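Issue: ligand-bound run for nicotinamide-adenine-dinucleotide - logging full I/O for the record.

Environment: standard queue, default settings, no custom constraints.

Inputs:
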Amino acid sequence: MNALGTLNLLEACRLFCPETPFIFTSTNKVYGDSPNRLPLVEEEKRWELGPEHPYGVHGIDESMSIDQTKHSLFGASKVAADVLVQEYGRYFGMKTVCFRGGCLTGPAHAGTELHGFLAYLMKCTVQGNPYRVFGYGGKQVRDNIHSHDLVEAFFQYFQTPRSAEVYNMGGSRHSNCSMLEAIELCQEISGKKLNWSYVEDNRIGDHIWWISDVRKFQSHYPGWSYRYGLREILGEIHQACA
Ligand SMILES: NC(=O)c1ccc[n+]([C@@H]2O[C@H](COP(=O)([O-])OP(=O)(O)OC[C@H]3O[C@@H](n4cnc5c(N)ncnc54)[C@H](O)[C@@H]3O)[C@@H](O)[C@H]2O)c1
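Outputs:
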């Protein structure tokens, strides 16, 4: 579905508006479960990657392979779309870009158990619904970017588009949390206690640690910067569901 839908849009763009910048919201799932092979260290509340590792200080950059790794069918369909988007840039010279997102969120995000984790977590905290944490000791780490900052990145690209670009895009070291840290923050902001339980089995192929290195995008588009950090993001989500 991602692959076919994206191909249809690419083809329509090539035929009718080839000069138009083509922005694809790809995903860090294109890297499959390769991030789980990183030499992660278990800390009190989160898994971490030491500063001696090339991805440790700034997060994972676009040099990580997307090949020979378990993607899930969703991830595989995103890989297909991602490669097509790149190819329309390289082969036809169109202005195409893949933003490989970490967790993209904001006050209007529709959180469900398997998607939109911060929005769903805050909703459960506020409404008193039970919440289940799947595996990794609750120490799995995600970076989180507000939709405003993401759209601002899209707009920067739109104004001076390049061909066949690929960018990791997320909260980076600027905005990230483990599940345990996110629970603490939701409880602090809402003043309520979350009713959560732990399920031993992690989701298949789920990342243990993901932090995006956004420096490639920043170097191409120095006018872009973050407006939101993790606390502000969760504050807005709280207001939206309180
Ligand atoms: N949220 C994340 O953490 C995350 C991470 C990486 C990548 N992405 C990607 O970002 C994109 C948006 O994700 P999201 O989390 O905001 O999802 P979402 O479900 O909140 O939003 C999807 C949007 O697409 C619209 N939509 C769905 N089917 C459509 C159709 N057939 N025609 C037109 N519009 C349609 C929906 O109305 C909705 O506005 C997706 O491509 C997703 O794979 C999201």
